[in-house]
Amino acid sequence: MNYWLFKSEPDAFSIDDLQNMKGKRDHWDGIRNYQARNIMRDQMHKGDLGFFYHSSCKVPGIVGLVEVVKEAYPDHTAFDKKEKYYDPKSTEDNPRWVMVDVKFKKKFTQILSLETLRTVKSLSGMVLLQKGSRLSIQPVTKKQWNTILKLADDQV
């Protein structure tokens, strides 16, 4: 099992939006960074778990848990000129971009803020906390995963 962090701006797609989707699942589309794409395509598997992270908002932080329920497949938004994430170089015969399906697992009772995460010494190596880290899909180690789950439980 692998662990991940999925970043989304809550104005665009929040954990509440995912929770309210039919079946509490949706595709994670619009990834237009090759490193994040490669992670989804090559390393992410059905059954993997992830943190749902709200970014670019008043209080950025981890707000809940998701599960990968479908492995990488072509991102159809890249083929449609009307879509925000249209890419003319991506075709159905040669797709450049992929997406995975995720399912809502849990919403935390309180946001685990970025500010709080920065205070936890054992998380200092976390990709999210590195300077210049802007990836929307990030790996999380098992140790980091367990530390963050304990932090979330302690906040209840």
Low-confidence stretches: none
Share of helix, binned = 10-25%
Cross-sheet strand order for the largest sheet? 2-5-4-3-1-6
Number of domains: 1
How many runs of DSSP E, i.e. beta strands? Answer: 6
Query: Could you say what the CATH architecture is?
Result: Roll
Q: Which H/E pattern describes the elements?
A: EHEHEEEHEH
Write the SSE topology:
Blueprint: E1 3-8, H1 15-20, E2 25-28, H2 34-42, E3 49-54, E4 61-74, E5 98-113, H3 114-118, E6 137-140, H4 142-154
Parallel strand pairs: 1-3
Antiparallel strand pairs: 1-6, 2-5, 3-4, 4-5
Descriptive report:
It is globular and about 50 Å long. The chain contains four helices and six strands; from the N terminus they run βαβαβββαβα. With 156 residues, it is an alpha+beta fold. It is 21% helix and 32% strand. The chain has a six-stranded mixed beta sheet with strand order 2-5-4-3-1-6. The mean pLDDT is 95. 29% of the residues are buried. The protein has helices spanning 15-20, 34-42, 114-118, 142-154, and strands spanning 3-8, 25-28, 49-54, 61-74, 98-113, 137-140. The chain has a single domain (3-154), classed as ph1033 like fold.
